[in-house]
Amino acid sequence: MAGFHVENFGCRATQADGAAIERQLIQKGLTRVTSPEAAQVVVLNTCTVTASADQDVRNSIRRIHRQNPDCKILVTGCYAQRAPEELAAIPGVNWVVGNSHKSRIAEVACGVNSSFVSAASLNAGSNEGLQDVGTGLQARPFGSAEIFISDIFAHTTLLAAPVFDADTASEKTRPNLKVQDGCNNRCSFCIIPSVRGRSRSLAVDDVIREVNGLVENGYREIVISGINLGRWGRDLTSPGKFAGLVRRILEQTSLEKLRISSVEPMDWTDELIDLVATSARIAKHAHVPMQSGSDRVLRLMHRKYRPWHYAEKIGKIRAAMPDAAIGSDVMVGFPGETDADFEETRQFIDSLPMTYLHVFTFSARPGTPAAAMPGQVHPQVMKERNRILRELAARKKREFQQTFIGRELQAITLTNCNGTHTECLTDNFQKLWLEGKWAANQWVRARIGGIEEEAVIGRL
């Protein structure tokens, strides 16, 4: 029986797509293997948010082809949608499948008889135009590879399959379920709308079915995610709002804990804040992307809020949930960002009750307005600004953690154990080392005794 291996690059949404691809291939009768060296086909599910993400993919293709030259390599995801010819030209690549065709990867890889179709046999016909590979799909030859891609903005399907935390090898805790894909915003630095298309949502009945299936299999905490999660439901035949979806999950499933991933500031409505704050079944955790604390830079980014709007949302979340984790994404080095703009961002962050930050350095993406803007910031300056914000984030995180010493926190046990302590995740998104060795997927209430490195230390 043929074996496959999927490697995912980038965000949780990409990981969720990878889980759906695995589901497709298993349904075709293929067997999942743990390494590309043992596989007959390898799927690389790519990210293209930064230049370094692109480089990681190219390096992986070359490594896999060198270590396992007989395997078929299929490259898909955001990089495949953005630059298919660039990937198809790399030796070893057999198929490049854009996000537009991601839902049909099993058909591409397996052909009509669930046996792998060689690129050579596909190229036996015409070398011009599109070719039918026997599955109703049309392929465009490019050298020794085949490209499957079309207009992403005509794409209406949404892959949906839970993905499991990479740190929990036994897959017993915290599956991630993508319920939304694509984005209708046009931030000047972001390539994502061009490679993922318009915002589209998983129908509420499908969400409920997936959640109930996970609950039936013993999962106690589920993370729901999306590319622009707060826009869930607006594209459906019977439009809905994200807070309504959360309420339906609470009403129609017995899920013990729901964790919400990143939601844009304008979508943290009063209704959503109240729902998260008042339900014991929703994790007290808000991730609210910021990008910059400078009004001038936010305007250049084409973000839809101003710093005072953002501060107001964070203030409401903190007032409703005094112990909640509040995190954000922040970008440094956007074109035209001056020292004064950066200092405005630093002071703004310092004034807010943030508990962690994801700090990113601007990376020019071909085809985005920001890539051609004047005032590109020197890499060394970006590196220093990144360091300053990371140090600020570390201080704020530690100050937040210190408020819990001597108090009890609810947490779920994970599978990592260092011999004397078991890794857990608290309701408010703190890494916890619990004294003793505990089975995964158990609720505990731990008394916090101190902080070690980036984790709080607790005992029952």
Describe the structure.
The structure is a single chain. This protein is of the alpha/beta class. The protein folds into three domains: 3-153, Methylthiotransferase, N-terminal domain (Rossmann fold), CATH 3.40.50; 176-402, Alpha-Beta Horseshoe (pyruvate-formate lyase- activating enzyme); 408-459, OB fold (Dihydrolipoamide Acetyltransferase, E2P), CATH 2.40.50. The chain is 32% helix and 23% strand. The chain is built from 14 helices and 20 strands. The strands form four sheets. Strands 2-1-3-4-5-8-7-6 form an eight-stranded mixed beta sheet, with helices on both faces. A hairpin with a 2-residue loop joins strand 19 (443-452) and strand 20 (455-459). Helix 8 packs across helix 9 and helix 13 (339-351) packs parallel to helix 14. The termini are far apart. Residues 112-135 and 165-171 have low confidence and may be disordered.
How would you sum up the major sheet?
Answer: 8 strands, mixed
CATH topology tier name of the largest domain = pyruvate-formate lyase- activating enzyme
End-to-end C-alpha gap: 47 Å
Instruction: Provide the CATH architecture of the largest domain.
Output: Alpha-Beta Horseshoe
Helix content: 25-40%
The CATH superfamily of the largest domain turns out to be tm_1862 like domain
**Quaternary structure annotation:** single chain
**What Rg do the Cα atoms give?**
23 Å
How many beta-strand segments?
Answer: 20
How are strands sequenced across the largest beta sheet?
2-1-3-4-5-8-7-6
Low-pLDDT segments: 112-135, 165-171
